[in-house]
Amino acid sequence: MNPQSEAEKKMQTSSSSREVKPSEKAWAADGAVPVDPIKKGCDPPELRLIDKLLNVDNLNEAFLKVVDNKGAAGVDGMEVGDLKLFLRKNWTTIEGQLKQGKYQPQPVKKVEIPKPDGGVRMLGIPTVLDRLIQQALLQVLTPIWEPIFSDNSFGFRPGRKAIDAVNRAKEYQDDGYRIVIDIDLSKFFDEVPHQRLMSKIMLKTPGEWEIHKLIHRYLSAGMMKDGIVEEREKGTPQGSPASPILSNIVLDELDKELEKRGHRHTRYADDCNVYVKTRRAGERAFASIQNFIGNKMKLKVNKEKSAVDRPVKRKFLGFSFYYKKGNSMGIRVAPKSVIRLKETIKSLCQQGRGQKLPVFIFRRLNPVIRGWFNYYRYADMKTLAHELDEWLRHRLRNILWRQWKRNWTRFTHLRKAGLSEQRAVRSAFNQRGPWFNSGAPHMNLAFPKKYFDGLRLFSFVDGLKAFHANQTAQPT
Question: Where is the segment annotated Disordered (predicted)?
Answer without folding.
Answer: 1-29
